Structure formats: C-alpha cells, structure tokens
Amino acid sequence: MPSLGRLHLITDTRPGRDPLTMVRAALTAARADLVVQVRVEDSATDREAYELTREVLALCTPYGATCLVNDRLHVALAAGAAGGHVGADDLPVTAARRVLGPTAVLGATARAPGTATGAVTGGASYLGVGPCHATSTKPGLPDPFGPEGVRAVAGAVDVPVIAIGGVTAARVPALRAAGAYGVAVVGAISTAADPARATAELLRALA
Ligand SMILES: Cc1ncc(COP(=O)(O)OP(=O)(O)O)c(N)n1
Ligand SMILES: Cc1nc(C(=O)O)sc1CCOP(=O)(O)O
Ligand SMILES: [Mg+2]
Q1: Residue 196 belongs to domain spanning
Q2: Which of 1, 47, 67, 183 is deepest in the core (most CB within 10 A)?
Q3: Where, by residue number, does 2-[(2R,5Z)-2-carboxy-4-methylthiazol-5(2H)-ylidene]ethyl phosphate bind (predicted)?
C-alpha cells in the first residue's frame, strides 16, 4: 500500500468554484506530498465525476501525488485512482475493501472510537475524523469535537488519522498534538487568496 500524504485537499465543486485551478496551485507547492480527494456534489452524474477524476489524475501523476475518489468507488476504479473514501451513507468498509481490492488506499469516516476500530477491522487504511472545528463547507454535520475528539479516535487505532472540518494552518499543531497524522481541507485552500501559499503554510504546519 502506498505511504499516505499528510495533506489532503478535497475538491470544492460548489457552484462558482474552480477545482482544477485549486488542484494545480496546490500541486505546485506540495508536489508528491499532496493527496487530492475528488469529491463532487451528490447531484453530479457519474460521467462528471469520472471526467473530473481523470483530469485530477492527469495533474497529479507528473508530481507523483495521490488521487482518491469520495463515495463513488466504481469511478475510482474506472479512472485508475489510488483508492477511495467512504462514510456512513456509503458502502460499508468491508464491502468497499472488496470492491477496491487489497492494495488500494481506503479511507473511512469515523467520529468516535467504536466506529474507528470497526472501520480498521473492516479494512480501512486511514480514517477521516471530524468535524474538528465548525465548517460552512458541508451542512448537517454534528457539533465539532475539537482536538479532544481526534485524540479519542487516534488513541483507539493504529492507522493514520486525518483530521477534517474547519482545519487551518493555525489549528494544525493542536490536531497533530492530539494524534492526527495529517489533515484534510477544502476551504483553507479553495477560498485562499493565494492557494499555493496556503498549501505551503499547511505543509509547514504539518512538518
Ligand atoms: C478525509 C475525509 N474525512 C471525512 C470525509 C467525509 O466523508 P463522508 O462522511 O462520507 O461524507 P461526504 O464527504 O461523502 O459528504 C471525507 N470525505 N474525507
Ligand atoms: C467533506 C467534509 N466532511 C467532514 C466531516 O466532518 O465528515 S467536514 C467536511 C468539509 C471540510 O471542509 P473545510 O475544510 O472547508 O471545513
Ligand atoms: Mg461519503
């Protein structure tokens, strides 16, 4: 299984956003250290998800960066991505692992230690743990649980924990101290005036 990068950039495909420009900018700063997770709106078609994934892969490959696909594992496989990420409304982790095969990267969302240990037993290679802080990027999330929520999950598992939700460079040290291996962001890069610089700041905070 490939070693996992510490900085995960999740594509921002809300209306008016330009995910490919954001990915290009982040790659210039992070190169092989970046993991790009292709996440599309639920209303997007599989064809749109596939085409975006192929475009993201074409950007990532020359840098040696990793491309994952959120939710739609058939798109990940068809496009040739390194793996996928599933949560409570997606395929169960054991089924996702069967779909992707033994060597793919498989992320699973875990908000509590019990879910986390179950996901690892089912074959997750990393966990997305959040929301750590309040976020306006995704509606309907439970209340943020801060670094202490990350600590509870990280203490229960032996796979990398990727903290998500309202993550900024300034918040990275506390999340790392709580046991996060890395972080996943949307807004910290996609809404930054200078996305490449924002990426470099996140990487510095993670080092
Ligand atoms: C790294 C990471 N962590 C958590 C999530 C959230 O996944 P999920 O709970 O399935 O919600 P959606 O992203 O599908 O709306 C994630 N995508 N990545
Ligand atoms: C897609 C997603 N999932 C979350 C979770 O907690 O499961 S938080 C989130 C959005 C993260 O965006 P931002 O970095 O802009 O806060
Ligand atoms: Mg999902």
Answers
A1: 7-206
A2: 183
A3: 135-137, 166
